[in-house]
Amino acid sequence: MARVTKEMTMGELLQTYYEQCPEIVDVLTGLGMHCIGCPSSIGESLADAAYVHGIDSDLLVEKLNATINAKLGE
């Protein structure tokens, strides 16, 4: 089961899950978070990134975990 948390950085998220589940990029961009490749976003927590984009961080984490779990069959 995926364990994405609000405290996880964008870099940690991508490093941990992108190879297994590239669909996480669709979740991020679908919510208006197009900063995936920005150097400054890599060290930013998901909570901070969500705040900057006016997104509820709990919703973001929920969608990421659901997408990863669906892809990995968990």
TrEMBL record:
Origin superkingdom: Bacteria
PANTHER family: BSL7085 PROTEIN, DUF1858 DOMAIN-CONTAINING PROTEIN
Domain DUF1858 per the UniProt entry, residue ranges: 5-61
Annotated protein name in UniProt: Hydrid cluster protein-associated redox disulfide domain protein
InterPro entries: CHP03980_redox-disulphide (IPR023883), DUF1858 (IPR015077), ScdA-like_N_sf (IPR038062)
Xref: Pfam families: DUF1858
SUPFAM superfamilies per UniProt: SP0561-like
NCBIfam families xrefs: prismane_assoc (TIGR03980)
